[in-house]
Specification:
alpha/beta; Conserved hypothetical protein from pyrococcus furiosus pfu- 392566-001, ParB domain
């Protein structure tokens, strides 16, 4: 897998080096507002409360990336990690939680290229039609 790339805006998405349809990206919590995130907000729940408390107690762990897909329109569609993303965004705005050091600074995403996987699926369908026909 390739090294993580720090991105700050949607313009940076066009420069990503996808390997076999994937790229690892890091986004500063403050820069998230520059991106269109889809399926990113989670409603209040016991699970969200547990994740939020874990980040307050131990800080945010970037070793477990947020799984997302880059759509053809340039949006980032969150597939797994929405609770962590919601909790991280909320905690980054809490004064008391960050009084002695930021609990959340950078988020790591494993980003799928929607174009790549659409091409692979199209090739597979074509190949299966040839085998059947």
């Amino acid at each position: 897998m390739n090294k993580a790339t720090r991105i700050k805006s949607t313009r940076d998405l066009k420069k990503l080096d996808f390997r076999q349809g994937y790229a690892i990206v890091e986004i500063d919590i403050e820069d998230l507002r520059h991106f269109q995130l889809v399926n990113a907000q989670r409603a209040e729940s016991p699970r969200l409360q547990r994740v939020r408390q874990s980040i307050r107690d131990e800080g945010y762990n970037n070793m477990d990336p947020i799984f997302a897909r880059l759509t053809p329109s340039g949006k980032i569609y969150i597939e797994d990690g929405g609770h962590r993303l919601t909790a991280a965004q909320e905690i980054s705005r809490e004064l008391l939680s960050n009084l002695f050091g930021a609990k959340v600074t950078i988020l790591t995403f494993l980003l799928r290229d929607g174009h790549y996987f659409r091409k692979v699926a199209k090739k597979r369908r074509k190949k299966s039609r040839m085998l059947i026909g």
